[in-house]
Input
Amino acid sequence: MTDVKAYDCDYENKWCPGCGNFGILNAMKKALADQEIPPDRVLIVSGIGQAGKTPHFLKCNYFHGLHGRAVPVATGAKLANHDLNILVNMGDGDCYGEGGNHLLAAIRRNIDITLLVHNNMVYGLTKGQASPTSAHGFVTKAQPQGVAGEALNPLALAISQGAGFVARGYNGKMEHLSRLIREGMRHKGLSLIDILQVCVSFNHVNTAGFYNERVYELDESEYPVDDWHRAMDTARIWGDRIPIGIFYKKETESYTDRLAGLKDGPLVNRQFDPARVAALISDS
Ligand SMILES: Cc1ncc(C[n+]2csc(CCOP(=O)(O)OP(=O)(O)O)c2C)c(N)n1
Output
């Protein structure tokens, strides 16, 4: 039996008191424990930022890479060992800004990883500049007259590009978020979970109060999760009411399923023959 405590680690945590990342961390632990996944079967890859620190606070395998580059690392790890459960923690700047092109490639290839984007709509670690999801007009020290551009809609982007599992969670609804993470991990193929995350230091607009008044759960008994047009419409709802839940879900062959070379099991379990590699190098 795997308990949430199996994932506890005593690394000192410096997130601000009240940071939404704590709810996300707890939801991850619960999702992993509920699936009885032991820590050694999990790899967490992260980029740079406050979100990128998440795996420091979990006892499991992790790789903390460069800003925006967690997805290619996770892709490589999945291809090397497709038996591993791979989660990726990134901030909205990390994933949709610096790492945007990698996100597009992962969607196109349908890499079987679960992307958890801590979307606080601001660059937290570097003290509050606008990110790709900052709203038009959002005022920061670096954008004193407000953001001139429009905010990226990550859910609509992912659905439009054919991602097979697209969901939104909220750090204030831990049980619900943990269910989404569990479902995302069970999905064969790329799962994107955009998580509304409160930043108590640098986003004084999208606060817990703001979300608690607006967030509602999609009704799973009524909502047709495989209806692409409905998903696109739902992804565009933002205002007095903000939906959370699974917006779109449709399974198609994942990248690892498509690669003939992986059919005989994970590459890491194969015998490595240095003589064959040496022969290949001398041939070229
Ligand atoms: C290529 C590159 N560009 C910029 C930076 C500086 N930098 C580090 S973290 C960060 C922003 C992080 O914001 P986000 O990804 O939204 O995560 P958060 O800290 O809000 O969780 C930036 C711009 C960097 N380390 N590398």
Notes: The beta strands are 42-46, 61-64, 85-91, 114-119, 165-170, 191-196, 215-217, 242-249. The chain is about 30% helix and 15% strand. The domain at 4-283 is CATH 3.40.50.970 (Rossmann fold).
